[in-house]
Amino acid sequence: MLEINNLRASLEEEGKEILKGLTLTVEAGKVHAIMGPNGSGKSTLSYVLAGRDGYEVTDGSATLLGQDILGMEPEERAAAGLFLAFQYPVEIPGVGNMTFLRTAVNAQRKARGEPEMDAATFLKEVRARARDLKIDAEMLKRPVNMGFSGGEKKRNEILQMAMLEPKICILDETDSGLDVDALKLVSDGVNAMRSPDRAFLVITHYQRLLDHIVPDVVHIMVDGRIIKTGGPELALEVEKNGYADLIGEAA
Question: Distance from the CA of 40 to the CA of which of 47, 112, 125, 158 falls in 20 to 30 A?
Answer without folding.
Answer: 158
